[in-house]
Amino acid sequence: MQAKDSNPPDGGYGWIVVVSAFMVMGLTVAVLKTFGLFFVEIQQHFDELASTTSWITSVTIAVFHLGAPVASSLCVQYTHRTVVITGGLLAFSGMALGFFGFNMVWMYATTGFLQGLGISFSWTPAISIVSHYFSKKRALANAIASAGECAFAFTFGPFFQWLISQYGWKGALLIIGGIQLNICVCGTLMRPLASSCLEASYCKTETPPHNSASRRDKEDKSPITHKTFNWMLVRRPEFVLYAIFGVLAAMSFFVPPLFLVPLSYSLGIDESWTASLLSILAIVDFGGRLLCGWYANLHITKTIHLLAMTITLISTSLMLLPLANNYLSLAIFTGFYGFFFGTTVAIHMTVLADVVGMPEFDSALGLFMLIRSTGGFVGPPLAGLIVDMAGDYRACFYMAGATLVLSAGFLVILDRLQQRKKKGSKIRTKPEKSTLPYPSLHLLKHQTRRLRA
Q: How far apart are the C-alpha atoms of 131 and 139, rounded to whole Å?
């Protein structure tokens, strides 16, 4: 049994876990975000359409989400540490085997499936264990951990471009796979809460020493003692609404990083300047996450309201981005999109924890990622199809912006539902006021009712 979530460390060794999660984010999602640099190289090598090539990223994103329930279940049965180490080995295998690059199907299976599964088995436990280690500072801790993908993407942009120019796209994949082996090192640092002294203090302070029945009741109510995956969350309307938001958001989130590089090429921007766009995207994303995490930690604005605001601002940025016609304007719009994207990522898992509660967070995270996978699976190919039909990379950005506007509507509905339920619970728990002038008459009224019954 691990420590009770209502009393997590909120610091101490938890910050080591945050740093480890920071590294894992960088070695997984940052690689996925900068994979757009390989898009044109792979497309030209196999002489395929944009929609066909985009299936590599689509498979990666889909497996990343589909593997989340499996990763969450394994975390419950074993430890977060074990799952992260396994994820690091899978990620390395995907990139190393992608080096051979026999055909497009081979790329789907290696840099698509294996890489996606590795990312899922690394990312999911890293996010989960940070949420278990923190309560009051959860928003800030999640923001710092998630900022790892921005910090790494800032350097990965020019670094991957250099690797491709020096070793070709195949050699670059092999080197990146070797770098991803460091995920295993980060996993070893994710010490389970069960090994801390919190378990002993919980048992001593929460349970009377000579009351075995009370001890059993406490253990039954402890959220960490649940050893089964809770699929019944799909019956909760709040979770369903948030999952629909996740599907629509996933359809849009992975489109800009994938098609930003081809868009810049279509505008005649030099390759060296194109790589800098991904660095700009990463650095403003980093700032947005830290700033939003700090602000959310102040508890001034309700997190779901903050999330709806940031989603609306992202959609606006995506609608404006196709108006760019040179490097400067494209860099400015990219900066706006990256900043607001960072603010969204910083808090969207905190909102999920608020919606379902920490006792069900592990199961909710896995289910949320599973359902959201449909958006990640459909989004890039749909965007690629729109590009092929329109003959212009700008079209996919309009699609992504419109989808995000729709997703924000489901957040508004979710907030209204939560407020209505909160008001209903207050009315039900409100004590019945006596209309009789004297308390004695009120007691007499109840005695009369009992005699009649």
A: 9
Cα separation, 226 vs 262, in Å, equals 47
The string of pLDDT tens digits covering residues 10-26 is 788 899 999 999 999 99
Structure confidence by residue, pLDDT tens digits, 228-251: 677 788 889 999 999 999 999 988
Contact (Cβ atoms closer than 8 angstroms) between residue 388 and residue 266: no
256 contacts: CB under 8 Å, gap ≥ 6: 281, 318, 321, 334, 337, 397, 400
Q: 28: closest CA among 100, 94, 108, 103?
A: 94
Closest CA to 25 of 372, 368, 286: 286
Task: Tell me the residue type at 397.
Answer: F
Q: Do 303 and 247 meet the contact criterion of CB atoms below 8 Å apart?
A: no
Which parts of the chain have pLDDT scores under 50? 1-6, 195-226, 434-444
Buried b / exposed e across 295-306, counting CB within 10 Å, b at 16+? bbbeeeeebbeb
Q: Which helix (H) or strand (E) holds 114?
A: none
pLDDT of residue 185: 95
Answer for the pair 212, 118: CB distance below 8 angstroms, yes or no.
Answer: no
Question: Could you identify the residue written with the tokens 């040179």?
Answer: 326
| Helix, strand, coil content of the chain in percent (nearest 5) | 85, 0, 15
Q: How far apart are CA 111 and CA 117, in angstroms?
A: 10
113 vs 110, 400, 447, CA distance in Å?
6, 24, 71
Tokens representing 222?
């402890």
Cα separation, 366 vs 66, in Å, equals 8
Cα 315 from Cα 188, distance rounded (Å): 39
> What is the CB-side half-sphere exposure of residue 221 using CA atoms within 13 A?
11
**pTM for the whole structure:** 0.70
